[in-house]
Amino acid sequence: MRANLFIIWSELIKNLKFLLAYPVVFVFWAIFPVFWFVPFILQGEAFVGGLQSQSFAQIAGTPEYIPFIVLGAILNSYVLTSLYGMGESIRREAYRGTLDYILSSPCNKAFILIGKALSESISSTMFAISQLLISILFFGLEMTLGIIMPVILIIILLILGLYGIALVLAAVSLRYKQAHDMAHTLEYVFYLFAPVRYPIEILPIWLQIIGKLLPLTYALIAVRSIMLLKESISFVYMEILALLIIDAIVILIGFYLFNWMEKRTKTSGTISHY
Amino acid sequence: MGNTGKGHKIRETKCPTGFNWTNIKAEFRAIWESNIKAWKLDLAYPVSFVRQCMHPLIFLLPFIIYGLVLIGGRYSEHLEQLIGTGDIVTFLFTGYMIMGFIGTAVWAMGFSIRREQWFGTLESIYVTPTNRLSLVLGMALHSTLHQSMGTAIQFAATYLMFGLTLKIGGLLPALGIFALMMLALYGFGILVSALSLVLKEGWIVAEGLHSIMMILSPVVYPLVVLPTIAQQASAMFPTAPALVGMRALILENYRPELIGNVFLHLFALDLAWILFGIFIFHLTDIYVRKRGSLEKY
What we know:
The complex is a heterodimer of chains A (about 270) and B (about 300). Chain A is built from 13 helices and no strands. Chain A has about 270 residues and is mainly alpha-helical. Chain A has one domain. The longest helix of chain A has about 30 residues, at about 235-270. Chain A is globular and about 60 Å long. In chain A, about 40% of the residues are buried. In chain B, helix 11 (about 240-250) packs antiparallel against helix 12 (about 260-290). Chain B is about 70% helix and about 0% strand. Chain B starts with a strand and ends in a 6-residue tail after the last helix. Chain B has one domain (about 20-290). The radius of gyration of chain B is 22 Å and the shape is elongated. Chain B contains twelve helices and two strands; from the N terminus they run ββαααααααααααα. Chain B is mostly helical. In chain B, strand 1 and strand 2 form a beta hairpin. The chains are: A mainly alpha (about 270), B mainly alpha (about 300). The interface of A and B includes residues 28 and 55 of A.
């Protein structure tokens, strides 16, 4: 067990060292995602002529579209880092020429993946905190101490689900190499069918079903209920339950698929191909 | 035919130089071949190609759906007060159509040289007797055509899903404005490609410029909602006058937000951005070759 924890720790330290070796990249991810949601705020101002919209309130439950957009963007940044960070981490090892060594090392590969997921989670959270602080300062987002713990719990559940999906992506990239297109396609699915910019109730029923299969949908509904509608955590127990079920399913599928693909790649001798 | 000391014959190649028709023709050929190469690479990955063609539509839809939720329909009274037209779908479509071409300049052109570094072919290209800019312009041609395909899909899908109200008579002069905007964007793309050669993390510059340009251009909102200083800064980029000019020609009842001659404004920006882009490109070209850092990234 100690050896396995050491693997997780080493992977965590390695990835954080990589991150800190490029301070400009670090600053970029901490600040620039804010620029991506500014057009939505200005669009709202141009179309509505104020900071509140009654039409928006009828579907979203809150007339304040700016906090709605800001929270959507911050939680969506976890999607981006999990798909492009964790999902492509195996591909990056292949590019660096270190994948052969990692996969032939005498350890359970699951712990390497846990280390990678943990480091991605820490960096994503650092970026999210920075974006949150900017949003509190410039966009009037409110944050009280009482809601921090429930929000953290929901974010942890979201991260687990997203890394389950990223594991599937890592497994596919191990065998089929081109994970980038799959990551992009998944990003499109999250972008359109999760309530990042708008409530999914505006979409046709059959498209809402796709949205309801995504962990981000439940995390956003729960976080917005707590932060914007001032509801308690017990109010969102159904969303938390849905997140738990999705997490369990995707993590199991992810690990199973990764082990299966690893064996197939080793047999075919194409580990370091890219 | 030349002759070496060992009796081997070396084939001599005539390389046209200087400003003459033969050389210009050769450079056009290099641009065309660079474009063909990019298409071949594109079509070698059909799934990726299809995904990229859908990209403009996928990124436009959230803006439209969000707008529909905000105002509970497709006509915004407040937008009408600001610019004379309240049809948000047509307004957003005409804006986001241009946004894709900003990406063309910043990403496709900007990273044309960087990509050759990744492929390991940059040194081979640099020793060929063609102008370095031909490679960038070939990439510009390819990405403009590629983006046009994406925009055609975007237009067809938006028209079928929501309907668009455009003045057909204004399309031709609007295309003229578009062409002028593209020239300035090419200058901008040449500048980014130069920066990507010297900066290790050039993608940050590209992404940063792309985001800033998106905010300073009237893509999804009119310029009047921006603070005064941002409105003034937007005049430096070709997208602001081009969008205002194009909308004035193709949107019903549109009141232009910028005063002045859009054509003259764009001519001035074309000249400035192309000259500045080529100047910086030559400086970085000399710099990286002197340092021997052509293959480093």
